[in-house]
Amino acid sequence: MPKQTIIQVIKSTLSAFIGVQSTANRKQDFEHGSLTTYIIAGLIFTIVFVVGLIFLVSTVIGG
């Protein structure tokens, strides 16, 4: 199987991020994916999540 596309990496990272990654998809990621790609994607999604939470809380508080 060829390398995973960016869409597949995003879907897989988001699924793992919220905890709904299937065993079959996880195995495929480990067999055909690149560790550095998933680390970078995970870091990006974590930063976006934290910034989104900060924005949401500051909007609700009114600051």
Give structural notes.
This protein is mainly α and 63 residues long. Helix content is 79%, strand content 0%. Helix 1 (6-18) crosses helix 3. The longest helix has 27 residues, at 35-61. The radius of gyration is 15 Å and the shape is elongated.
Helix content: over 70%
Mean pLDDT: 90
Q: What gross morphology would you assign?
A: elongated
Output the radius of gyration: 15 Å
Element string (H = helix, E = strand) = HHH
- The computed structural class is mainly alpha
Number of helices: 3
Low-confidence stretches: none
Q: Main β-sheet, in a few words?
A: none
Question: Hey, roughly how much beta strand do the residues contain?
Answer: under 5%
- Strand tally is 0
Count of individual domains:
1
Distance between the termini: 50 Å
